[in-house]
Amino acid sequence: MTAVGDAIAKVPLFANLSKKDCKELAALMSERTFPAGTVITEIGQGGVGFFVIASGTATVTINGKVVRTLHDGDHFGEIALIDQGNRTANVTADTELQCFGLAAFNFRPYVKAHPDVAWKLLEAMAKRIRENLDVS
After folding, report:
1. In 3D, which of 71, 117, 123, 136 has the Cα closest to residue 97?
2. Residue among 40, 41, 39, 32 nearest 3 (CA)
3. CB atoms within 10 A of CB 109
4. Which of 122, 73, 70 is nearest to 92 (CA)?
5. Spans of the chain below 50 pLDDT
6. CA atoms of 9 and 17, how far apart (whole Å)
7. Which of 36, 31, 29, 5 has its CA nearest to residue 19?
8. Which phi and psi (to 5°) does residue 63 adopt?
9. What would the 3-class secondary structure string for 86-125 be?
10. Going edge to edge, which strands form the sheet with 65-70?
11. Are the C-beta atoms of 128 and 78 separated by less than 8 Å?
12. In sequence order, what E strands does the chain have?
């Protein structure tokens, strides 16, 4: 398997994809490496890509508050691509971060053609909303 194929295989979002669909997705993705300290997404900026982390860690912050740490197999960037709005969080590389990115113009058609991925995206977003609600 290729490096991008290995990265995709770690992502629960893509767990139900056939080998053919994984191969198709891998062909659409490009490798990106971000040095430690790089702000990859910034609140209020337009979204140009969806990212899957192959190695390294990153911190997600909203208005200066740390909301989660991302690791191998995690993904980010989908919200701005789904609604074509601005980024909702800052994502900053803690270590050198190797990612595979899917450009906005490829993301929407791919998700529309793969309902299992669309459903998993909905589940992931619902989970994030629940994590950020203060219901105590």
Report:
1. 71
2. 32
3. 10
4. 70
5. 136
6. 9
7. 5
8. 50, 45
9. ECCCEEEECCCEEEEEEEHHHHHHHHHHCHHHHHHHHHHH
10. 39-41, 90-93, 58-62, 65-70
11. no
12. 30-34, 39-41, 49-55, 58-62, 65-70, 75-76, 90-93, 97-103
Rg (CA), the chain: 14
- Ramachandran bin of 65, using left for φ above 0, alpha for ψ from -120 to 50, beta for the remaining angles: beta
pLDDT in tens, 100-113: 999 989 988 988 88
Question: What is the C-alpha separation between 37 and 94, in angstroms, rounded?
Answer: 6
CB 29 within 8 A of CB 52: yes
pTM: 0.85
Q: How many other C-beta atoms lie within 10 A of the C-beta of residue 133? A: 8
The CA-based dihedral angle spanning residues 16, 19, 20, 23, taken in that order and rounded to the nearest 10 degrees: 100
